[in-house]
User: Fold these one by one.
Assistant:
Number 1:
Amino acid sequence: MTLVRPAALAASMLVATPSLAFAHITLDTGSAAVGSSYKAVLRVPHGCSGSATTAIRLKVPEGFIDAKPMPKVGWTLDIKTGPYAKSYTLYGSPVTSGATEISWSGGNLPDNEYDEFVVRGTLAGDLTPGATLYFPVLQICASGEEDWIDTSGSEDGTPAPGLKLTPAQ
């Protein structure tokens, strides 16, 4: 039996999961088919400079329709709705509005703990396969905040969680 040394294990984890190395808010599943149902699981690995996370605010991306968040015990859920930029078709019917922002607040996620926030929706059938759909997140903490909103595709700074769109199945 061969034992893996902790340093070697840590190095292999950094290579295998580069987004975790930077400790950004990320999506649990990094790709999904256009036109499919998708469960966006936002992974929150830390607070803000040592302080606890007290709120998460998600800007629902255009094309992620019929978004429905999962409530969390101990957190207050707020869903802002409004018109979509265009009309989409869902189960044969036109959809022109829905959730545009979802927030969980009033909780307490210590800096040294990890949690997930979940939203289920549908990836519109006219999204472009090969593109990335970004889920911008504002992380509010007891002292300060982090804006995970950069949609440039860079892993530097404060990148928004991104979902690689694959062809419809």
Number 2:
Amino acid sequence: MKRRALELGLTVHQPATFKSPEALAQLRAAEADALIVAAYGLILPLAALDIPKWGCINIHASLLPRWRGAAPIQRALLAGDSLTGVTIMRMAAGLDTGPMLNSRTTRIGPTDTAKTLHDRLAEMGAELICESLDDFSHGRIREVAQPAAGVTYAAKIEKSEALIQWQQSAEQIHRQIRAFNPWPMAETRFKGEQLRIWDAEPIEAPALSGAAMPPGTALSATREGIDVVCGSGILRILRLQLAGRKPLPAAEFLRGQRLDGMRFADP
């Protein structure tokens, strides 16, 4: 957005905080009808929220009040939500607590990742904010208070959350892989090295004879993928990446590796 603004000859300000008198004066001088916020890292104080004529409007990547906070896309994927969307809301003093102005829903597919979902929601959000601003300008905007029921919080993603615990179910690990693609990427250890998992799918677990294999054990490794025993179920790894190498489909990765019976380790 900054690059495009500069190409168009627009003035760009990047205040480190909106708590300073200088930043607030800059905002007042703009005489803006609305201040639009999308994935913005700074807290806007009440003094800033009250300056624009229509207020500060947030494009939020969830169906509020579910997943207020910093990482709504990843948290929706981790929780196994089937639906998400974009909510246009007027910002208030609390964390994503303001009244809702507009919303749009999308289904979360079984192969959606944080990237594919982000890109789809970004497009929806761009369309929806334009509609909402048009409603403002024609006096059609309607505010709806967020319901008290169903509030959840999307805490900031910590890199440590991307470490795969093979004792979890294949479905849980599959969600983790999708939620942390493209960052920070779900990972495990292979021969003591970092191994990132880019793509996988839970598969029906075959009937196993003899002693149960511990979670993390490679049950089989074929062109179709690397089947790994989980706490419950089997996860088939389809695309993976060793540290310092490029991501590879399982079939290519196996040309230089032998995995049958090997155990992936928790870090």
Number 3:
Amino acid sequence: MQRIPEPELMTTKEQVDAYAEADFSSGDARTVALVEQLLDETGSLPDNPLIVDLGCGPGNITFRLAALLPNAKVIGIDGSEPMLAVAKQRSVDAPGDLQFICLQLNGIAAHLNNSADLVVSNSLLHHLKDPELLWSVTQSISKPGCRVLHRDLRRPSTLAEVHDLQQQHLPKAPSILIQDFTASLVAAYTTDEVAEQLRRADTTLLRAWPEDDRYLVVSGLVG
């Protein structure tokens, strides 16, 4: 099935409200569990590390990372100001050293050059028309030995599979979430496509693999 890109940012009130109210706890927990697994495999982070959550949306993963690593400074970055408004409101009483910044992906490197100890994203890659940008930004903001964990949807082979996945995982969700989920599956990259992106970016310490029936994971080290 041919990939059909979708808009890079979620800015409408309907989208922001739906994502803020939706229960993504299972997927969020899985992403953070993969971060824990990566740290178990590669060793502890430095004292007082800097963690960057790219495409953080309303902050679901950002808050979990702050709870997992309470000595870290955690920065959530997104290009959607309405999404960040939700994250900032939620952060008022949240523990940890948290910061939310509105930046487009191509402006992040100048802001955080060679400073991150851990870079994470969840469901960001499929929004990008130019996927190479994620890998170049990841490299630019990372210290040598930075841990990296990106998790995203992967594109099915047929529209029938898209429909089956929607029926299985979001059978009674609000219409905006169903619409976005199916569009995101069609906009997602395959594991082979991501592996080729990593090869072109010369990220030899990162690897991509498929996970369950609809996700892919990229993890490893930078430099």
